[in-house]
Amino acid sequence: MRLARISFRSLVLCVASLLSSSLACAQATSVVGIVEGGATLIRQTTRYALAEGVALNDQDIIETAPGAFAQIELPGGVLVGVGESTRLMLRPRVGKGLTPPPLYLLQGWLKTSTSGAFGYASPTFEIATQAGTIVVYTTGAQYEVFLESGAARLKLRDGAQTTAQLASGDFAQKREGATLTVARRATPEFLAKVPRQFRDRLPARGEQFAKRNVAPKALGEVAYTDVAAWLRTEPALRLPLLPLWRSRAADLTFRAAAKAELAQHPEWEPYADPEGYARRMAEEAERRRAREAARQAARQAARAAAPASGTGAGWGKP
After folding, report:
1. Of 209, 231, 246, the domain-final residue
2. 187 and 242, same structural domain?
3. What domain count does the chain have?
4. Which pLDDT score, from 0 to 100, does residue 8 have?
5. Could you tell me if 214 and 29 are in contact, meaning their C-beta atoms sit under 8 angstroms apart?
6. Of 58, 136, 159, 172, which sits most exposed with the smallest number of CB within 10 A?
């Protein structure tokens, strides 16, 4: 296993080795090239049926059902295959001072292919490729990475501050509670579960939709269960989602579900539990006033005690 120790800033979501070409792709329009099976687009507060030819925006979320497949295409020849049971966000907004990655893979299957530099992030690792094709599967705490071709760097985000340099054919695996391992070939178990759509080269189809204006079909407003997984992820990613979805707290069902999970996303308290939040703020204000009153009383007592202590000192008679 080829591991090299490096230092990097905590909570960094950007992939450090992205070159200017991939950053340009991240800011340009992406398009859906293929949809097979059930796939959903979450855009702001609405769920849509994902369709071929739909142009994608920042913070768009793609979710695929079991057995489904979708392909999105970024300008510059970046092809992204989205396997079954996958949650993926395009160009998320992140905390101040951080550069957003082109993609954020929360869970599931992803295959990317590009002739240049490209990279993306997940909760537990970051990938940077150079003229590479790479297949990734993650459930969050554990993941598997297979580099079909090219070169790649896998950077862990679990506090170990290490990277693994991958060459064509390498297979990296991180099981929950275990250390990262890198082998010269993928395991038979991994190859057996790779989505069938990933077994061939991803076909470029974006040009077929370049002049179309395909509008996705709305399915309804997002429920809490539709976005709960995103509200439980790391603060740098989920905090910018609050202004996007807080209007849904007007729905009593959404509000009740968010209130029940406040420990996972405490920033939702003013919207999910406004009465409790107002009561807590009033109680904290009262405690601050009590503490300030106590400090004032202590200062007054100290000033009053100073002259009295002075009269007993000096040249008095014995």
Report:
1. 209
2. no
3. 2
4. 34
5. no
6. 159
Closest CA to 86 of 101, 103, 99: 103
**CA angle at 103 for the pair 169 and 232, rounded to the nearest 5°:** 110
Q: Which among 35, 26, 128 is positioned nearest to 74, based on CA atoms?
A: 26
Same domain, residue pair 62 and 191: yes
58 domain-assigned? yes
- Owning domain of residue 226: 222-272
pLDDT score for 170: 97
Q: Which residue's structure tokens are 């297949």?
A: 135
3-class DSSP state of 123: coil
Distance from the Cα of residue 263 to its chain's centroid? 18
Q: Where are the beta strands (DSSP E) in the chain?
A: 3-5, 30-36, 39-43, 46-49, 55-56, 61-64, 69-74, 78-82, 87-90, 103-113, 117-121, 125-138, 143-156, 162-166, 171-174, 181-183, 217-221
Both 153 and 268 in one domain: the answer is no
In a domain, residue 80? The reply is yes
Quick check: is 242 in a domain? yes
Is the same domain home to 90 and 124?
A: yes
pLDDT digits (tens, 9 = 90+) for 177-236: 888 999 999 999 999 999 999 999 999 887 787 777 899 999 999 999 999 999 999 999
For the chain, the residue count is 318
All residue ranges of the chain with pLDDT < 70 are 1-28, 308-318
Question: Do residues 73 and 80 touch, judged by C-beta distance below 8 A?
Answer: yes
Contact call for residues 82 and 195 (beta carbons, < 8 A) = no
